[in-house]
């Protein structure tokens, strides 16, 4: 009997210790509320502790200003020793930064600091949400950008917005890698150095990148299978106004078989990306040294129309006999537009 009582007491003690550990873990990894949401490096949520010099470091932000992030999937970051621009990459609807490691690695090799950022991209696609409503697109994109203009279509809070996540990710990286030069991309407590950032994204993320380039003077914008923001004669209303980033610093690419191709090419036309002769057409060969097309259509039979929407950029992209992505030459051409740009 005495032995049984001791076993019960031991079990109760173990449960209590487990509960206390869980509480402690939540506190240590918890709410970042002091100093505009920042806490010391020792108390930050941690990632895989690799990189970011020359290899990718995975981490999760957890909570910002007391708000638990949703979704909260791994962010990816890496850098070289160069002083190149930052590539801020936004995934497609329901996709994760982890789905684009081949492209992000190509950017790293090109001398970029790289941040594949998780953000609120759940639910329906932007094109499926807005359809032919021209004002819906910008309203949703602005809400996901900075948490303003909530609506029945999108109600992201400021703490969970792209801007807030970006600032927090840079603060985390600056603490984790103090010699990495991450801090130069956020000036002071709030101002983001957009002129040193190339925004890029796939599908919904590419449309968000185009919208960010419209409202902020970024160094450049790269859009993959995007923006999907036209339907027949209707298109996103924000495209009718001059943007902060000139069209000369924006580039888009898609495959000719993309199921959303008509909506994407309609967006390109409104933005003025396809030029007087239409998109540049190729298999995987990049434009020549004297060519500078801002809209590129590939034709490499990457799969079905639905698969073609993703396989120009995701890790499911076709691999050549040399073991490299068949799209890599085009990726490099796009990345080269800004990697050596001194401005």
Treating each run of at least 4 consecutive H or I residues as one helix, how many helices? Answer: 10
Strand content: 15-25%
Order of helices and strands: HHEEEEEHEHHHEEEHEEEEHEEHH
Strand order of the largest sheet: 1-4-6-5-9-10-13-15-14
Question: What structural class do you assign from the helix and strand content?
Answer: alpha/beta
Distance between the termini: 80 Å
3D shape: globular
- List low-pLDDT spans: 5-46
Radius of gyration, Cα only, in angstroms?
22 Å
- The strand count comes to 15
Largest sheet: 9 strands, mixed
Q: Estimate the mean pLDDT confidence.
A: 86
* Helix content class: 25-40%
List its salient traits:
343 residues, alpha/beta, 10 helices, 15 strands, 15% strand, globular
Describe what is shown at a glance.
Strands 1-4-6-5-9-10-13-15-14 form a nine-stranded mixed sheet, sandwiched between helices. The chain has helices at residues 2-28, 34-37, 101-109, 126-130, 134-146, 162-176, 204-215, 261-271, 305-308, 328-339; strands at residues 57-59, 63-64, 67-68, 75-78, 86-90, 113-116, 186-187, 191-192, 197-202, 220-224, 230-231, 234-235, 250-255, 280-282, 295-298. The protein is built from ten helices and 15 strands.
Topology:
Blueprint: H1 2-28, H2 34-37, E1 57-59, E2 63-64, E3 67-68, E4 75-78, E5 86-90, H3 101-109, E6 113-116, H4 126-130, H5 134-146, H6 162-176, E7 186-187, E8 191-192, E9 197-202, H7 204-215, E10 220-224, E11 230-231, E12 234-235, E13 250-255, H8 261-271, E14 280-282, E15 295-298, H9 305-308, H10 328-339
Parallel strand pairs: 5-6, 5-9, 9-10, 10-13, 13-15, 14-15
Antiparallel strand pairs: 1-4, 2-3, 4-6, 7-8, 11-12
Helix pairs in contact: 5-7
């Amino acid at each position: 009997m005495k032995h049984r009582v001791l076993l019960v007491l031991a079990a109760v003690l173990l449960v209590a210790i487990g509960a206390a550990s869980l509480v402690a873990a939540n506190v240590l990894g918890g709410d970042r509320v002091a100093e505009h949401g920042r806490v010391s490096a020792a108390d930050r949520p941690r990632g895989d502790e690799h990189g970011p010099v020359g290899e990718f470091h995975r981490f999760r932000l957890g909570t910002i200003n007391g708000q638990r992030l949703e979704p909260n999937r791994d962010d990816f970051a890496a850098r070289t020793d160069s002083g190149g621009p930052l590539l801020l990459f936004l995934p497609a609807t329901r996709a994760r930064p982890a789905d684009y490691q081949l492209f992000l690695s190509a950017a790293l090799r090109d001398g970029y600091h790289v941040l594949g950022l998780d953000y609120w991209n759940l639910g329906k696609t932007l094109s499926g949400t807005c359809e032919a409503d021209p004002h819906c697109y910008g309203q949703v994109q602005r809400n996901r950008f900075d948490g303003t203009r909530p609506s029945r279509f999108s109600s992201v809070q400021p703490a969970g917005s792209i801007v807030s996540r970006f600032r927090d990710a840079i603060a985390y990286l600056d603490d984790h890698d103090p010699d990495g030069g991450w801090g130069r991309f956020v000036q002071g407590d709030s101002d983001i150095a957009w002129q040193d950032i190339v925004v890029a994204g796939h599908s919904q993320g590419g449309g968000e990148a185009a919208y960010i380039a419209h409202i902020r003077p970024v160094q450049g914008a790269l859009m993959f299978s995007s923006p999907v923001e036209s339907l027949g004669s209707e298109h996103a209303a924000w495209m009718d106004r001059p943007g902060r980033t000139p069209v000369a610093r924006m580039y888009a690419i898609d495959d000719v078989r993309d199921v959303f191709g008509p909506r994407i090419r309609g967006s390109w036309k409104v933005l003025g990306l396809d030029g007087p002769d239409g998109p540049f057409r190729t298999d995987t060969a990049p434009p020549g040294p004297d060519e500078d097309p801002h809209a590129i259509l590939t034709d490499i039979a990457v799969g079905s129309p639905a698969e073609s929407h993703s396989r120009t950029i995701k890790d499911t992209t076709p691999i050549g006999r040399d073991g490299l992505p068949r799209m890599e030459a085009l990726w490099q051409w796009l990345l080269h537009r800004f990697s050596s740009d001194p401005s």
